[in-house]
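Appendix B, Record 12. Input sequence as logged:
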Amino acid sequence: MAAVTYPVESRHPGWPGKPGRLRVPAGIVEVRPVRLRDAGEWSRIRLRDRAHLEQWEPTGIGPWPDRNAFWSWPSQWAALRGLARRGQCLPFTITVDGRFAGQITVGNVIRASLRSAWIGYWVSSEIVRGGVATAAVALVTDHAFEAAGLHRLEATVRPENNPSLRVLIKAGYRQEGLFERYLDVAGAWRDHLCFAVTKEETGDGLVSRLVSTGRAGYA
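Logged structural output:
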């Protein structure tokens, strides 16, 4: 009697992968895995956009210039890639017309009966309000629900961060509640609104919804 074999589930479903491309007012948005050679543009934008980013991101260890210097990227990239290979996160770079424009990460991936994670993102100050972050969130959410096999994603945003709130609402996330004193941001414990979406709510996908409403086009 022949032995019965069963498919072995990937240790890191959805990684590496390319969630796709969309056309928005700012240009062609593409999401791809982070690369070691992203260091130069990553550092240049992060150092230039300190005032734009630091007020919304969790407080880090050490001065901003040190944490975002060119030489600090290789260790961050290696850590992200290690987590991705263990199936614990999906770290992506956002590009616009082929140029580095930000990051989007699905983190704290939990499998088994929960199959959930959080999603976080940042984009260059030069392309805010150009539809880039919304397109990236839609692309990665669909990828997480399909290729990565997740069921729920959530995102937390400070109530004062109106641009990021608009991104999540336009992408198709719904507000669930308020987390009081949730994260240490800019040196103080800040309240955050919680947004979430489950696979059942996305229908044919968030990308399809963006395109059908005219907020983006297929590239």
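Residues 20-218 form a domain with the Aminopeptidase fold (CATH 3.40.630.30).
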